[in-house]
Amino acid sequence: MYFSITRTAWTAAAIVKDHPLAFGAVVVAGASVLLNRWLAKKAERRNPSIGCFITVDGVRLHYYERGTGTPLILLHGNGSMIEDFQSSGLIDLASKKYRVIAFDRPGFGHSDRPRRIVWTPNAQADLIAAALDKIGVPRAIVLGHSWGTLVAIALAVRYPPQVRALILASGYYYPNARADVVALSPPAIPLIGDLLSYTVSPILSRLMWPLLIRKMFRPSSVPKKFADFPAEMAVRPSQIRASAAESALMIPSVWTLQKKYSQLRLPVAIIAGAEDRLIESEQSSHLHRDIPHSTLHRVPATGHMVHQTATAEVMTAIDAAAAAQPRRTITTSAA
After folding, report:
1. Contacts of 311 (CB under 8 A, 6+ apart)
2. Nearest-CA neighbor of 75 among 158, 176, 154, 180?
3. Is residue 26 part of a domain?
4. 219 and 120 co-located in one domain
5. How far is it, in rounded angstroms, from Cα 245 to Cα 118?
6. Which of 279, 260, 248 is nearest to 119 (CA)?
7. Tens place of pLDDT for every residue, the chain, 335 residues?
8. Helices 200-217 and 20-46 meet at what angle, rounded to 10?
9. 30, 100, 237, 295: which has the fewest C-beta neighbours closer than 10 Å?
10. Distance of alpha carbon 200 from alpha carbon 127, whole angstroms
11. In a domain, 330, yes or no
12. Is residue 302 within 8 Å of residue 309, measured between CB atoms?
C-alpha cells in the first residue's frame, strides 16, 4: 500500500507540474509519505515485540504471556496495545496468581490486520478464540478495556465454553450520537483514507496526542508510569487506519451486539470511572441493568483509563469474577 501511495503521489506530481500550487501540494504529500514511512519503521525498531507470535487463519498475532494459574486474557482498547496493560502494572499484579495473556488486537502493536476481513467484534472474537485454542487455553477469564470490551462480549457470546468470566472496563455498549466517530473515521475510507493515513493524519495525531491522553485520564493527571507507553507506535499510518476503522465500526457494532447481552450467563464484572470524559459511565450502568446478575463498580474521581489509575480496583474485580459462580438457567417442564 505504501508503494502504491508513493507512486500515485509522484505520478500526480508529473501530471500537474505545469500548475505550481497543485504541483507543490503533491510534492509535499509525497514527502510526507516518505517521512511517515521512515518514522513508522524507526518506531518499530525502537519498540520491538515483547512477546510471541502465532499465526491463525493467515493472521499473524502478537501476544505476551506471563504467570501461571487460571488463564486471564487482556484485550486493549482502540488505538492501544499490550504496553498499555504493561505500563499500568496490571500484568505485574495479575501474573502473581493468573496465567496472563495479553494480545495486540489486529492492526495494533505488532499484530497484522489483513484488509480482506472487516474486523468487527465478532471477527476479532473468532480470531482470539482460535488463537487460544492453538495456544492451549481451554477456558479463561477475559478482561476487555474500552473497544476491547466489545471483543470480550462477542467472545463470551460466540464461545461460551471458552470464557469463564468477563471483566468489562470503561466500555461502550449502546449506540448514541458521537462527534468523535465522525472526526476520527476518515482515515478508514478506501483510497482517501489511505492517503490521509500516510500524509496528514500521522502529523495531526502527533500534535493531538497530548490533548487526547489528558482527556482519557481526566479528572486524574497522566501518571508517570504511562511514560513507558510507546506513543510513536500508535501514530504509525497502519495503526491510525486500524483505529479509524474501529471508530467507524463502534456504533454499528453495539447496535447489533446489544441484543446479545441477555444471553450472558457467566459472571460479569463491570467497572468504570465515574467521571469518564470519553465514554459516559451511564453506559456501564445501563449494561448492569440489562445483565441483572452482573456487578457494577463505578470508581469515583476516575476517568476512562481506570486500569491505569485504579489498578487495584480492577484487580479486585478480576478476583471477584474468578470466584463467582455461573448463573444457572432455570427451566420449567410443561404440565
Report:
1. 88, 89, 90, 93
2. 154
3. yes
4. yes
5. 9
6. 248
7. 555 555 555 554 455 455 565 556 566 667 778 887 888 899 999 999 999 999 999 999 999 999 999 999 999 999 999 999 999 999 999 999 999 999 999 999 999 999 999 999 999 999 999 999 999 999 999 999 999 999 999 999 999 999 999 999 999 999 998 888 888 888 888 888 778 888 888 888 889 999 999 999 999 999 999 998 999 999 999 999 999 999 999 999 999 999 999 999 999 999 999 999 999 999 999 999 999 999 999 999 999 999 999 999 999 999 999 998 776 543 322 32
8. 50
9. 295
10. 32
11. no
12. yes
User: Amino acid identity of 87?
Assistant: S
- Among the listed residues 90, 120, 118, the one whose alpha carbon sits nearest the alpha carbon of residue 102: 90
Is there a domain that residue 130 lies in? yes
Exposed/middle/buried for residue 240 (C-beta within 10 Å: 0-12, 13-18, 19+): buried
Count of domains forming the chain: 2
Instruction: Find out whether 100 and 94 touch, Cβ atoms under 8 Å.
Output: yes
Q: 8 is written with which cell numbers?
A: 500515485
Q: Which three cell numbers stand for residue 19?
A: 500548475
- Annotate the chain with three-state secondary structure: CHHHHHHHHHHHHHHCCCCHHHHHHHHHHHHHHHHHHHHHHHHHHHCCCCCEEEEECCEEEEEEEECCCEEEEEECCCCCCHHHHHHHCHHHHHCCCEEEEEEECCCCCCCCCCCCCCCCHHHHHHHHHHHHHHHCCCCEEEEEECHHHHHHHHHHHHCHHHEEEEEEECCCCCCCCCHHHHHHCHHHCCCHHHHHHHCHHHHHHHHHHHHHHHHHHCCCCCCHHHHHCCHHHHCCHHHHHHHHHHHHHHHHHHHHHHHHHHHCCCCEEEEEECCCCCCCCHHHHHHHHHCCCCEEEEECCCCCCHHHHCHHHHHHHHHHHHHCCCCCCCCCCCC
Residues 151 and 38 in one domain: no
Calculate the CA dihedral of residues 329, 330, 331, 335 and round it to 10 degrees. 180
Nearest to 238 by CA among 79, 118, 121: 79
For residue 333, being part of any structural domain is answered with no
